[in-house]
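thread: overnight batch results

M.L. [08:02]
morning all. the overnight job finished for the chain we discussed friday. pasting input first so we're all looking at the same thing
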Amino acid sequence: MKYVIEVDSLKKEYPGFTLDNISLKLPRGSITGLIGPNGAGKTTTIKLLMNMIRADAGSVAIFGLNYRHDEKEIKNRIGYVGEEQYFYQNKTLAWTERFVSSFYREWDGNAFARFVESFKLPAKKKIRHFSRGMKVKLSFALALSHNPSLLILDEPTSGLDPVIRREILDLLIDLKRKEELSVLLSSHITDDLFRISDLITYMVDGRIIISEVKDELLARWKKIVYRPGVLPDAVEKRLKNVEKQLFGSSGITDDYPQLARHLAAGVSKGDVKVENVNLDDILISLVNGG
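M.L. [08:03]
and the structure it wrote out:
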C-alpha cells in the first residue's frame, strides 16, 4: 500500500460554501501539513475523511478500504485529535482509559501507561482539573495507544505554549521514524508544520491550490529583492505581491528555477538578492490571488 489516504473529486455543499473537487493522496509513512485560512475547508475535509459527514460527490479510500464496507476496520487503525477536547469531566484518567479502550481491538495498556508517565499526567485527578495542555496530551495518549497506522490531527496544538507544542511535535517525528506512522496535521501554526512536515497542502476557498513535497515547494518559492529598474519588465511581471519603494523593490516568485538565469547578472552585481520565504508568505500570496 503506497498511500494511506486517497481522495478523488470530493465535493460537499453548504449554504454559502462549497468544498469543490478535492483530490489528495497521503503517502504511507509521511507527515502532511494542511494549511489554509479560516473557512478554507480544512475541517470539512477532515470530517469527510473521518466519515463524520457524507460527501455529495467523490470518493474516500483509507488504507485502500472504504467506509461503506469497512468503517470499523478503518477507525480501528486511525488515531484522531481535534482542536476541542471532549471528556467526561467528573471522571479520572483511569476511568477514561477503560472507557476508550473498549472501542478498540488492539488497545495497548502498557503504551498508554508510558504516554501518561512521559506526559506527566496525574492518574487520580478528575479531568475537570486538567489544564488545556494536559487534556491535549491525554488526547494524544488515547489516540496513540491502539497502535494506529494513521493520525488525523485538526488544530490540536492551537493555544498551547511552545514547550508543550515542541514536546508533541518531537513525539510525532519520533513515532513516524520508528513505526512508519502516517500523519495528516491541519494547523494555523506554520512554524510547526515547517518543522515536521514532509508534504504541504494549501487550501483556499474550498479548493486545494497546492499539494507538494515541502523541500520542492520552498525551492520554487523565493522572495526577490531588487533595485528599481534593474529587472527586465517581462521578469518583473512574473513576480507576485510586488512592493515598489524608492530605494528597493521586492516580489515573490513561485518559479525561481526558471527565473534564476534572468536574475544571475543582477545577483552578481549586488543589485538583486534572493531570499527564502516561509509557509505564511506562500499562503498570503495564494489568498491574494497569486
